[in-house]
């Protein structure tokens, strides 16, 4: 068969093809790969994966000699707040004075400040800005991502955000999972009546479902935001309405959101810095993916990080994400998140690669299309300026991308997005 493109001499070709759609516990230390590998595609679909020797059976007018470089699937970022107006650099001084994140929120800043900017922005402005950030994620090797609403906190603006995500799903080739996070904060107008606000957000479920605007419903279960009981009720209704659920759980205060996520069989439980020891153990007997966001811990200037080791050692499944957002994690650099996972979460390099591919795809129900290289799947492939897979978590703060292929097409090179 004649291929459109054939990559040969991939020093390590990480296929991540575990034969299962999730890597749990010890399996996270296994890295399915081919030494001196080769991969080829036609019409954006992978037609061949094997060794460079086996590639002799295929022809192509476009053969790239990878000269021993690392080649992997496109990365999956399973937790971003991609669509928002404005930015929050005006809060730097408060942050430096040590004013806690939840205190800034309580004073009407933080998420509320971004809500105002998002309400004020037009659909086109939000689309343009989200596209910019999405391309930057792509330049760091991400080809699949999840995007949340949650900076509207009213009917109109939440729908506006979700429609931006839908437009992105339709007009560009990255794979995107959409999450309704209307329950992200209590708007000032409902300050003393959070239940009524959740009722109001629930009235959106049917419209969101009918118009295919989101696959997941998420809630910020946190002290001063939504309680365990409120989260349980709200997410149970979301499940009844046909959504899969996620929770921003135990990010700052240990409330038991992690246990709730597992009880509800959530697709993922996210953050988990303050998760209890019992909750950490529970991942061993659950397929709920622990989505860890060490960039947020870093940027909130916290000393203790989520207990990734405990979760993996208990037999659980861990994924990593940027949590890209304007407040607690303003970065699209998923490679820096991989560095932090090595340094702060004490994850092995093998675990880190599983966490940004196969497990990340599972956390957003994109495991049938993303996170693994298999014949018949989209050619979402990254060539790295790295001699081996350990090199990326090791050498920090820079972009190691050599080339990103999205559905077979070269879209980013040397860390820059190609127009
Ligand atoms: O995942 N914790 C809640 N939501 C985001 C931050 C949102 C913001 O500060 O704008 C998070 O950290
Ligand atoms: Fe988040």
Q: What is the compact description of this entry?
A:
This protein is α/β, with parallel strands linked by helices and 419 residues long. Helix content is 32%, strand content 23%.
Verbal overview:
This protein is α/β, with parallel strands linked by helices and 419 residues long. Helix content is 32%, strand content 23%. It has 16 helices and 19 strands. It has helices spanning 92-96, 101-106, 111-120, 123-139, 155-171, 194-202, 205-210, 228-240, 257-263, 277-282, 294-299, 308-313, 334-343, 349-355, 358-363, 391-394; strands at residues 2-3, 5-14, 33-42, 45-51, 59-60, 63-65, 70-73, 75-77, 142-148, 175-183, 216-221, 244-249, 268-271, 289-292, 318-320, 381-384, 401-406, 409-413, 416-417. Helix 4 (123-139) crosses helix 5 and helix 6 (194-202) packs parallel to helix 8 (228-240). The longest helix has 17 residues, at 123-139. Fe (iii) ion binds at residues 79, 81, 248, 323, 325.
């Amino acid at each position: 068969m004649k291929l459109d493109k054939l990559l040969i001499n991939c020093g390590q070709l990480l296929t991540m093809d575990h034969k299962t759609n999730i890597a749990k516990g010890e399996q996270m230390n296994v890295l399915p790969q081919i030494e001196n590998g080769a991969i080829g595609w036609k019409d954006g679909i992978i037609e061949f994966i094997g060794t460079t020797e086996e590639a002799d059976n295929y022809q192509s007018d476009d053969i790239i000699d990878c000269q021993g470089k690392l080649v992997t699937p496109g990365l999956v970022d399973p937790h971003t707040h991609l669509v928002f107006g404005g930015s929050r650099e005006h809060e730097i001084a408060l942050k430096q004075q040590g004013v806690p994140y939840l205190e800034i929120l309580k004073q009407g800043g933080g998420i509320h400040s971004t809500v105002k900017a998002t309400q004020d922005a037009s659909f086109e402005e939000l689309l343009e800005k989200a596209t910019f950030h999405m391309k930057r994620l792509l330049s760091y090797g991400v080809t699949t991502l999840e995007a949340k609403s949650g900076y509207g906190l009213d009917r109109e603006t939440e729908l506006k955000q979700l429609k931006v995500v839908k437009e992105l799903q339709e007009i560009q080739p990255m794979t995107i999972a959409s999450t309704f996070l209307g329950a992200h904060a209590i708007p000032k107008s409902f300050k003393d009546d959070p239940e009524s606000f959740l009722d109001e957000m629930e009235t959106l479920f049917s419209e969101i479902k009918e118009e295919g605007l989101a696959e997941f419903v998420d809630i910020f279960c946190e002290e001063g935001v939504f309680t365990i009981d409120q989260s349980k009720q709200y997410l149970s209704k979301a499940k009844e309405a046909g959504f899969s659920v996620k929770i921003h759980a135990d990010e700052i205060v240990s409330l038991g959101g992690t246990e709730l996520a597992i009880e509800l069989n959530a697709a993922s439980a996210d953050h988990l810095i303050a998760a209890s020891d019992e909750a950490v153990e529970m991942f061993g007997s659950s397929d709920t993916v622990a989505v860890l966001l060490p960039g947020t811990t870093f940027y909130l200037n916290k000393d203790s990080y989520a207990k990734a080791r405990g979760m993996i050692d208990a037999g659980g499944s861990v994924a990593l994400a940027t949590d890209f957002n304007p407040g607690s994690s303003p970065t699209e650099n998923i490679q820096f998140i991989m560095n932090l996972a090595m340094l702060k979460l004490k994850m092995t390099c093998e675990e880190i690669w599983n966490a940004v591919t196969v497990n990340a795809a599972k956390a957003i129900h994109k495991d049938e299309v993303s996170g693994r290289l298999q014949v018949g799947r989209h050619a979402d492939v990254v060539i790295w300026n790295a001699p081996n897979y350990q090199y990326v978590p090791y050498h920090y703060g820079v972009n190691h991308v050599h080339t990103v292929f999205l559905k077979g097409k070269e879209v980013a090179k040397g860390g820059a997005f190609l127009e």
